Amino acid sequence: MKTGIMNGFLSLVPVAVAVSACASAGPTPELVDARRAYDQARVSEAQRLAPDRLLSAKEALDNAERMHKDDPGSNRERGYAYIAQRRAQLAQEYGELARLQREQQQAEQNYVATQDRLRRAAEKRVEASQGQLAEQRGKIASTQAELAEEKQARTKAEQRASAALASLQQVAQVKEESRGTVITLDGAVLFVSGKAELLPIAQQKLNDVAEALKQTEDEQSIKIEGYTDSRGSDETNLKLSQQRAEAVRAYLVNRGVKAARISAEGKGEQNPIATNDTAEGRANNRRVEIIVQSQGMSQGTSQGTNSRQ
User: Fold this and answer.
1) Which strand (E) or helix (H) includes residue 141?
2) From residue 232, how far is each of 88, 97, 158, 235 by CA, in Å?
C-alpha cells in the first residue's frame, strides 16, 4: 500500500517541476521590447493624436501578456509581442506625423493672413488643399477689386482737382512748375496799397480758390507766398508780405481748407517777375502765390506760419 502511494507521488513530481518552471520563466526579449515600445508610445503624441493605433498596440500587447502567462516563452508569445512592438512604434510615428500635419495646417492659415508679399509662398504651402487654395484666391480677388476701386476713386479725385484748378484761370494765373501748381493772384486786387486787409472783391476770388483747393488731396501741402515790389525798406516789405500771406491763409482756412495743409511765408521783394522800374512791373511784382505741391513732395506745414527761409 505504501509502495503504491509513493509511486503515485513520484509520478507527479515532474509535472510540478514543469509547472514551477513555467511560472518562474521570465518574459521573452520580444515581450520586453514590446512593453518598452508601448510605454514610449503611451507618453508620446500618439495618446492624443493617434489613440486608435495606440489602442491596437495595447490589444496586441495584452495578447502577448496572456500568451506569456499561459505558455511562457512560446512562439505565440514572441509573435504577439513582435506585433505589439510594431504597432506601438507605428502609433508613435503616426502621432508625430499628426502633430506635424497640425503644425503645417496652422502655418498655412497664418500665411493666408499675411501681407501680399508672402502670398506666393503661402500658395505653395497650400497646393495640396483645394479648399484653402480657393479661399486664398478669393481673398486675392477681393484685394484686387478693392485696389481697382481705390485707383478709380483716386483717378476721379485727381480729375476733379485738375478741373477745379483749371477753372481758376478766370480769376487767377495758374501754371505748372517743378514745385507744383502755382496760382498767382494780383496783389492789387487783394489788398489796399501798403495794407494787409483783404478787399471785398478779393473774397470772391479767394472763395473760388478755396473751393478748388478743397478738391485736392489732403496729402498735398499748400504754401502761400506773399511778395512786394522794391519800394520801401527790406524790413518793411518783408513784414508786409508776411502779413498778406497770413491773411490769405486765414481766409482759406475759414473757407474750409484744412489748416494743417497750409503754410504762409513772406518773401518781400524777392523773386520779382517783372521790372520794378515801371508802375506796371511793380504791380506784377506785388502778388500772392499759392503753391499746391505735387503728391510725393515733402513740405513741412503747421497750424501757424512757417519760419522764413
Assistant:
1) helix 130-167
2) 102, 89, 42, 8
| Contact present, 71 and 77 (Cβ < 8 Å) | yes
> Helices 29-42 and 51-70, interaxial angle, to 10°?
150
pLDDT in tens, 175-224: 998 889 999 998 888 888 888 899 888 888 999 999 999 988 888 999 99
> Among 296, 300, 309, which residue's Cα sits nearest to residue 178?
296
Q: Any residues with CB less than 8 A from the CB of 161 and at least 6 apart, and which?
A: 212, 215, 216, 217
Q: Which one, of 63, 67, 59, lies nearest residue 88 by Cα?
A: 59
Between CA 304 and CA 255 the distance in angstroms is: 16
The residue among 108, 165, 116 whose CA lies nearest residue 133 is: 108
Residue 266, by phi and psi: left (phi above 0), alpha (psi -120 to 50) or beta? Answer: beta
Which pTM was predicted? 0.46
Mean pLDDT of 87-102: 92
List domains and CATH numbers for the chain: 14-112 (no CATH), 158-292 (3.30.1330.60)
Compute the distance between CA of residue 145 and CA of residue 148 in angstroms, rounded to an integer. Answer: 5
Distance, CA of 257 to CA of 122 (rounded, Å): 45
Question: How far is the C-alpha of 199 from the C-alpha of 70, rounded, in Å?
Answer: 118
Burial code of 115-134, b = ≥16 C-beta within 10 A, e = fewer? eeeebeebbebbeeeeebee
- For residue 259, the tally of other CB atoms under 10 A from its CB is 15
Cα–Cα distance for residue pair 48/43, rounded to 1 Å: 9
CA distance 158 to 156: 5
Q: Are 229 and 285 in contact (CB under 8 A)?
A: yes
